[in-house]
Task: structure prediction
Amino acid sequence: MLKRIRTILALVFFIGITWLFLDFTGMAHRWLGWMAKVQFLPAILALNVVVVVALIALTLIFGRIYCSVICPLGVFQDAVAWLGKRSKKNRYSYSKALSWLRYGVLGVFVVALVAGVGSIVQLLAPYSAYGRIATMVFQPIWKLANNGLAAIAERMDSYAFYSVEVMLPSVGAVLAIAGLTVLFLIPMAWNNGRMYCNTICPVGTFLSFFSRFSLMKIQFDAEKCRNCSLCTKNCKASCIDFKTHTVDYSRCVTCGNCVNLCKFGALKYGFKEFRSSGVQGVQESGSSGVQEPKGGASPDASRRSFLLATAMVSTAALAQEAKKVDGGFAKIEDKVAPTRQTPLTPPGSISAKNFQQHCTGCQLCVSECPNGVLRPSTDLMHLMMPTMSYEVGYCRPECNRCSEVCPTGAIKFLKHEDKASTQIGHAVWIKKNCIPLTDGVACGNCARHCPVGAIEMVPVDPENEESAYVPAVNEARCIGCGACENLCPARPFSAIYVEGHEVHAEV
Result:
């Protein structure tokens, strides 16, 4: 019962969170957005005290079921371990905890989090790691399959599917990191089960402080145990020592494998109890007033399973070479990736500092952006953090999808009317690249498409109205949406680009 309940709930969370990253229609967030917000690190960064306290309380009562039910990276490892188990059964063994490594990684993680070194935080955070895998590895495959169905549907005069852009070329570094993470995790989970969770994962190490004192635990009945070692050989956390009848509760993720496989009823999951002789085990029949059958399960086992089921169900509700130009603000590279003195952060992020302090690089906003504007940064100090890429699109004033889905508070929720008046940067004109001057033809594309009317075409020579007309930017009105940069026809270098602001303003 324990294993079946845990497996069902784990699949619900895993499929739900994966669907959040795969979905490009925006529908999944309406029903499943809360699953991202109950992840441990996002809840801490969002200062969501209710969720943090609830997860700690859950651990104090039931043990580390967060790791085996709610955490998508943990469930992903369980799936890999299950496949590995089919090829070789009874392959685990007990090992002592690598405390120096666990607490060392946790220390590095905390220091990086406080110091704002986002690259280290994002590499170690389990939810962020799975987000990269889902966005960079799974989502392209999902989109390619969708595009294949769209092509078939089109031939049948059906509009059930529509083609979408598959993001790959501009995210090589992050794609490589996601791919390496998968290549690192799969062999480890295949051969060693939950070794990653109990040696590297900082969230698992943090929760281990509380799981030691959980009220409900896996317990031995030494009198029933026949030392068959099945529990130890099937413990993917390597935390059960059948020889001494002990369980390392700091590493146990309450998966239920040991209880399920014990043929002699020597393992139970329930409230902490001790025998008078000092041997850890289940409650004796005399103390409960109920006679326990010899060699069988206790009568209240079903009640304990029901209690666990109720608790677990409640948790489910819970560029090419750079080219220098005279702009005065920045050095412009190829159209694909202009270099900005100040990075552009999404509307709602308030400031670059706030964004860097709260963003975990989970890529959920990247996967949900309908315009393809948000892309993971390849800058070393802000690696994997989303940045605005106007070479592929622009930030439409009426869209607030990223602020809706962000679970960490890195992008605060903005109403549509507030989004349209939030200034994240301003446009800068590059005289050397402007088509009216280089090709001698009229343009005005930037002015025509500016949604806030911040660009006006004026004669380059104020005393000669017949001279070429070039854009003049009203910085006070410009919101930095990037429509001008994206739609500028100048190639290979744009004649206008958006320079970011350290702190966002309202116009």
Summary: Residues 274-334 have pLDDT under 50 and may be disordered. The longest strand covers residues 496-506.
